[in-house]
Structures are given as C-alpha cells and as structure tokens.
Amino acid sequence: MITIEDFKKKQTSKTRLIGLDLGSKRIGVSICDEKQSIATPYKTIDRVNTANFIDELKEIIKENNIKGIVIGNPINMDGSSGPSAQSVKDISINISKSIDLPVCLWDERLSTVGAFNLSSQLDVNISKKIKKIDQNAAAFILQGALDYLKN
C-alpha cells in the first residue's frame, strides 16, 4: 500500500481507477473514466470470503483495464483508527499482495451518509437506495480521491 501522494505519481493520463467501500457484509465497487473525472457506481459484491472477493476484483480489473485501486478508510470522526479501519487495512494489504497495482487508502468519513443524501436528491425509492448504497459509497470515495488527485 502507498500514500495518496505516491499513488498520484504512479498515475498516467488515460488511466481508469477502481474505488472500493469494504463493508462487513457487502463491498461497493466504483470505476472512473479514463480522464479520471467522474466516478461511477459499478456493482456490489456480497462478501463471502477474501479469496472469492479478490478473484472477482481481479476479473473486474481485467475487464475494465484498471490501473489503480482506491479503498475507503473508515477512520473515526476524530481521526483515530478503530476496529473497522484495522480490518480495512488488513484486507487492503491482502489486495496489494494479490494484485500488482498501486493501492491506497482514502478517508471515507461520511461517504455512506453522503451517498445516501445524494441519492435522496434523486427520485429514487428507499429500497433502491439501500440496495445500491455500497456502490454509491464507493463512487463517493473514489470521486473524493479523484478530486484530490486533480488538484
């Protein structure tokens, strides 16, 4: 795993990135365009075990020509790391050992709330919001990282 600053140095133009929201039951996945302008919700993966998830992630990466991975880091509101952040860090290390791409963590504070609020502004019923909340949160995370990388 690398810092967002090192991640930025490894990116080239026309590079697609993947964003992940690693939940305990579901994993939200988002992908950006080649210009790294817009993150789009892609899919939600049910979390069975880490090996199955990494296999599915490899397939998504191959199909979409992904060149970097941004993973939401669920740090506490006060900036400290709790059990969720440690779990994400452990899984992120497994991902970086299994997939030969740059991997970085991005502060995901309020990403689920932000994704839910954003979908509330659209004319979407509550069951569809809940069903897509993980991939929308992943897009919210990836978009934050994209905005940072652009500036």
Can you walk through the features of this model?
The chain has 151 residues and is an alpha/beta fold. The chain has a single domain, classed as 2-Layer Sandwich (Nucleotidyltransferase, domain 5), CATH 3.30.420.140. Helix content is 49%, strand content 23%. The chain contains five helices and five strands, in the order αβββαβαβαα. It has helices spanning 4-10, 50-64, 83-98, 111-121, 126-150; strands at 16-22, 26-32, 39-46, 66-73, 103-107. The protein has a five-stranded mixed sheet, with helices on both faces. β2 and β3 form a beta hairpin. α4 (111-121) crosses α5. It is globular, with a radius of gyration of 14 Å. The protein starts with a helix and ends with a helix. The relative contact order is 0.24.
Relevant terms:
single chain, 151 residues, alpha/beta, Nucleotidyltransferase, domain 5, five-stranded mixed sheet, 49% helix, 23% strand
Note the topology.
Blueprint lengths: L3 H7 L5 E7 L3 E7 L6 E8 L3 H15 L1 E8 L9 H16 L4 E5 L3 H11 L4 H25 L1
